[in-house]
Design brief:
The complex is a heterodimer. By secondary structure, chain A is an alpha+beta fold. Chain A has 2 domains: about 5-45; about 60-265, Uridine Diphospho-n-acetylenolpyruvylglucosamine Reductase, domain 3. Helices cover about 35% and strands about 25% of the residues of chain A. Chain A contains 11 helices and 14 strands. In chain A, strand 4 and strand 5 (about 65-70) form a beta hairpin. Chain A starts with a strand and ends with a helix. The mean pLDDT of chain A is about 95. By secondary structure, chain B is an alpha+beta fold. Chain B is built from 6 helices and 5 strands. Chain B has helices at about 25-30, 85-95, 105-120, 125-130, 140-155, 160-165; strands at about 5-10, 10-15, 50, 55-60, 70-75. Mean pLDDT of chain B is about 95; it is low at about 160-165. The chains are: A alpha+beta, B alpha+beta.
């Protein structure tokens, strides 16, 4: 790790000011992505702005027909939340298969979403559920938030405060995980909303999380694994690495998508 | 260098540290509590698991600065003052739940946390599932699983959080 100075603000405003003043500063939430990245010297922020003492960034509440989750809420809290399990069980299930138990005790929703790792679980949940990312400055819909590999619509000095997840009629998540890293080789989140069906894929996109519109249209007509049985996904544009070729991932997306729909139909 | 203060195994400690200091480095190199191990140093193997405010965490992926004011319990803090082993430690010895012993501190800290979260009646499937983040390269896990089931049972129905609550 390269040297950095450590800052511990107590309000979002203080944290945002620190970010605005120091262009290369990074926010530190659970640290379970940032610290390993810094150890590998893939990131070398000169300042770390620790959010652990900032009030009001954590917690889960029901607001109208949405579940609203604070940015520093840990994966274990989402996985165990009665409220999330009752209204969006697929989201609680997603949080419960991130990393391992000790990782879930530290990692946070906001950290995962802000980092936008192309193999992370939460981006798929946000995109399929049509979530809104609420920052200290504005509200950003998921469709406009995830802009590329490790890239988001967040601007300098912008901090995720909470994320609002509209409650779907049905939803399901299925993940084929990399045994070593526990990230998704392919993860598919399917959500049946009152007016539409959304299917989001993580782990495979050459440009990060993406939607499968052909699957969405088929599932809108009939929400069943059978409805997408004959559909294939082109390998073009999918990522290819030592863990799996683009062709392998393309095949797996179809399989995992059918399982995700079956999960949603419970 | 900035100061950091915390409680480790019931004792208040503080030091001036380089902000880069990992919690595991602070425990091992500053406090000489070398029971907590560094295996992979990439948050996968679980040899470095300690309890932060009663919750199992990988101390190789946590900065000492992040746990300001927290209560830390390491493997050294589990046994009684007179040397009587914690029931989970005793079960690992009884059931031969280790060979080289390198992963054992993390296994035991994870197991105690497992009882806190899942109660003391743990079936094999639950234990194997919950050991997802702890890697052993010797035993094949079989005796570790047996040791955890027996240790959990020996901890009693409400003993899971007693040690942390007391710390």
């Amino acid at each position: 790790m390269y040297a950095f100075t450590f800052h511990r603000p107590t309000t979002v405003r203080q944290a945002a000011n620190m970010l605005a003043k120091n262009e290369d500063a990074k926010l530190l939430a659970g640290g379970h992505t940032l610290i390993p990245t810094m150890k590998q010297r893939l990131a070398a922020p000169p300042q770390l702005v620790d959010l652990s003492k900032v009030e009001g960034l954590s917690g889960i509440e029901l607001k109208g027909r949405s579940v609203v989750i604070g940015a520093t809420t840990r994966h274990i809290e989402v996985a165990n939340s009665e409220l999330v399990r009752e209204h969006i069980p697929a989201l609680a299930g997603l949080a419960g298969v991130i990393g391992d138990p000790a990782v879930r005790h530290r990692g946070t929703l906001g950290g995962s979403v802000a980092n936008n790792d192309p193999t992370a679980d939460y981006p798929a949940g946000c995109l399929a559920l049509g979530a809104t990312i609420i920052t200290n400055k504005r509200r950003i819909v998921a469709d406009e938030f995830f802009t590329g590999l490790f890239e988001t619509a967040l601007e300098p000095g912008e901090i995720i405060v909470k994320i609002s997840f509209p409650i779907p009629k049905k939803a399901g998540y299925e993940k084929f995980r990399n045994q070593a890293s526990r990230y998704a080789l392919v993860g598919v989140f399917v959500a049946r909303r009152p007016s539409e069906v959304r299917v989001a894929v993580t782990g495979s996109g050459g440009n990060g999380v993406f939607r499968l519109t052909a699957f969405e249209e088929a599932l809108k007509k009939r929400f069943s694994p059978k409805a997408i049985e004959g559909l294939t996904v082109p390998a073009e544009g999918l990522s290819s690495d030592i863990h799996g070729s683009a062709e392998y991932r393309a095949h797996l997306i179809g399989v995992i998508a059918r399982r995700a729909v079956a999960n949603a139909n419970g | 260098m900035p100061a950091v203060s915390m409680t480790v195994n019931g004792k208040a400690v503080s030091a001036d540290v380089d902000p880069r200091t990992l919690l595991v480095e602070y425990l091992r190199e500053h406090l000489r509590l070398t029971g907590t191990h560094v295996g992979c140093d990439t948050s996968q193997c679980g040899c470095c698991v300690v309890h932060i405010d009663g919750i199992a965490v990988k101390s190789c992926t946590t900065l000492a600065m992040q746990v300001e004011g927290a209560e830390i319990v390491t493997i050294e803090g589990l046994a009684e003052e007179d040397g009587t082993l914690h029931p989970m430690q005793a079960a690992f010895r009884e059931h031969h739940g280790l060979q080289c012993g390198f992963c054992t501190p993390g296994m035991i800290m994870t197991a105690v946390d497992m009882v806190r979260r899942k109660g003391n009646k743990l079936d094999e499937q639950t234990i194997r599932h919950e050991l997802d983040g702890n890697i052993c390269r010797c035993t094949g896990y079989h005796n570790i699983v047996k040791a955890i089931a027996a240790g959990a049972e020996a901890m009693g129905p409400d003993a899971g959080s007693k040690k942390q609550a007391a710390a």
